[in-house]
Every structure is written in structure tokens, then in C-alpha cells.
Amino acid sequence: MSNPVLLVYSHRPEVRERIITAIGRRPAPDVGRVDYLECSGVHEVIMAIDAQAADIVILDGEAQPTGGMGISRQIHQEAAVIPPIVLVVRRADEQVVGHLGEGRRGPGLPTGSGDRRGDHCRTVASARW
What we know:
Helix content: 25-40%
Distance between the termini: 32 Å
CATH architecture: 3-Layer(aba) Sandwich
């Protein structure tokens, strides 16, 4: 049996690294080891989704030129199989994003960035578009 694969998308390598570090290689005792598939572009994400290469998709809501919310919408409209999607947004005031996608709001998680504006990220699990 292979390890679960978490796809992590952001155009910024440091954001991908922070997400992966925050989750770790063994996020919980009952989950076991996970593998990561890092994507820096939309095409990579869509190809991985089409190939069903990811068990969970983690999208940076502030990625450029296409943010995670737009990619999530595209996945929901085009993919035959839709894996669970987590949208990571930096500021607590962006929690409205979850309501736009009829998703559920998750907890704030520390990212260790040292940014004075808010040292956390907010996750939103997308239910459907």
C-alpha cells in the first residue's frame, strides 16, 4: 500500500515549504507517512488531478497569477474525480472565502513567518462550487 499523496500548490517555494513543514511527514499516528507532490503552476495541478495522483489537494489562496480559489473552481467544474481540497489563506479576515464555495472553515494554523500582520494561515475545506 502506498503512502497518501498531498498535492501542495503555490507559485512561491517558501509557501509550499511552510505548508509541508506545518503538516510534517507523519501528521498523525493513525495516518502514517505522507508523500508530497509540489506544484508551482496551474497546469501541473490540473495534470495531477486528471491523473488522480493526489489524495488531498492543498492550494495557496494567494498564489499568482491564479489563486487557489480559481483552481478549486476549475477542478470542481472539470475533474471526473474531485479529491478533498484545502484552501490556505493568510489573513483571518479572508474566512469569507469558505462561504463563497459553500465550504467549511478550518482552524487557524501557525506558519512561523514572523509577519507582524498575523502569523497564521486559515484553511478552508471546499465542499462544492
